[in-house]
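Explain this one:

_____
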Amino acid sequence: MANSVRLARLAAGVPGARVEAGGDYQVARVVYDSRQAGPGDLFVAVPGLQVDGHDYAAAAASRGAALALERPLPLPADTAWLRLEDTRQGLGELAAELEGRPARRLLVAGVTGTDGKTTVTHMAAHLLEQAGLRTGYLSTVAHQAGDEAEENRSGQTTMESPDVQAWLARMAESGARVAVVETTSHALLQGRVAACDFDVAAVTNVGMDHLDYHGSWEAYVTAKARLIELCAAGYSKGVAKTAVLNTGDRSYPRLAGVPIERRLGYAVAAPADLRARSLRLDEQGSRFQLQMGDAEAGVHLRVPARFNVANALCAAGIGLALGLNLEQVAAGLSSFAGVRGRLEPVELGQPFRVYVDFAHSAGALEAALAELRSLSAGRLLAVFGSTGRSDHDRPGMGRAAARGADFFVITTDDPVGEDPAEIARQVAAGVERREPGRDYEVELDRRAAIRRVLTLARPGDAVLLAGKGHERTMILAGGSEPWDERAEAEAALRELGLSTAV
C-alpha cells in the first residue's frame, strides 16, 4: 500500500506534470471517480466517452481532494492541483509513481489479442512459476499476488490504471519476480496500462470484434500494436524487449513492422521461430514436440483444441523471452490444468462430453465449434446467446452456430438493458439453411436451455455451453443476478439422472 507523498514530489516523477497550487498537499491515494474523492486523495479528471471528469473536479475539491487537470477551472480557494497534458495517460503515471513504480521491480509481460488472452496469461504465469520464478497475474478470470488470489469482479478484463498499479505493487511486495497482465485494446488506448514498463508484448490474434469502438480492423490492429510500442519504450531491466507474435495471423505483417529489440514468431502451421511439430490432438488435449531452432522438447498439453496449441506456443514465447529454457517451458505446459470457463470439461460420468466456454463472439463461437467438431465422433449441440450493449456480430453468431452445430439453442446472455427476445431475433436472423424446431430452438430461460440440450444429447455427442464461461453473474435490466454455468450444467445432469458421480 502506498504511503502519502507530497504533491510536488509526486508531480516531479511524472513527465509533463506541473504543480499549479498546493505543492505540500499530502497524497495518499490516486482516484478517478469524484464520488470517492476526499482528503488525502488526488482526483484525476479524466475525459470519458459519456462524461468528463473535469465537470466534477470542483465537487471533489470541495470535499478536500487535490486535483489533476488538463486545463484551469473555477475552483474553491486553496485547492491543491497539478496540470497534465493528458489526464487519461497521466492517471497511470501518477498511480505508478505513488506506488513506487512497481513495474520496475518486476519483469512484466503483456498479453493482448482478440481470442486466447486469458488462457495465455494463465499458461504463461503457470510455466514461469513452475520454473521457479515467483509470478503474479491479472486476467479476466482472476488476479494473483503471492499467495493472495481473488476473482476478477471488476467487470473489466484490464482494470483502471490505479488498480493495475496497486496489484503490481502487491506482487512486488510479495516477492514476485514476474507479472503477466492480460491487456485489452480498450485498455491500451485508454492508458490503463500506462507505466507498466513491459518487457514482453505477446499477441494472440486480431479478429473482427470491437469495430464499432475502433472504427476499422486496421485501427484495431493499430491499437494492439500499442502494446509493442509501450514495451519497446519501457524502462530497461536487463532483458531484451520482445514481441511474441503469431506468424499465422493476418495481423502479423503490420505488428512485425513495429520497431522492437527482439521478435519471436510462433505458429502451429505457418513458418515461425517456435512451432509444434508432430502434433496429435484428442478429446483430452494434445501431444507435440515444442521446437525452437534445432532444439525441441515434448509437451503433453492437457487442455483440448488446436487453438490451445497456438495459445501454448504464445505462452512458451513469453517464457523463453524471460529466460526459461525449452525444457522448463515444456514441463510447465505439460502440468497446466486449464482455465476456468475456457473449454472447461464438465464430467459427472454422463455418456457424452460437456464443455463450458467463454466464447461470446461470432469468431470465438465458430472456432470453439470447429475444434469440438474435429474431436467429436457424435453430434455437436450448443447453447449460446449474445450480450446486450455489445458490438458483437449477432447474425454472425447465428451463422456460426448454423454452420458448426448439429442442433443449438439460442438463449439469454447478459442482456443488460436490452430485450432478450429482440437480441435472440437478431441472432436467429443470421441462421442459414436450418429449420427452427428441428435444427434449433429459441429458449430465453438459460437454465431451461441447458436442460433442453442435455436432454437431447446421446452417447458420443459433445455439448458446448458458450458465452458465460467463468462469470458468476447474469446482468439483466434490473441488475446482476448470481449465475454459475458449470454449477447449472452439473445440477441439470444430476436432475436428469445422467450423473454417475458420487
User: Anything to note?
Assistant: The CA atoms of residues 60 and 461 lie 58 Å apart. The chain is about 30% helix and 25% strand. The chain has a mean pLDDT of 94. Residues 344-495 form a domain with the Protein-Tyrosine Phosphatase; Chain A fold (CATH 3.90.190.20).
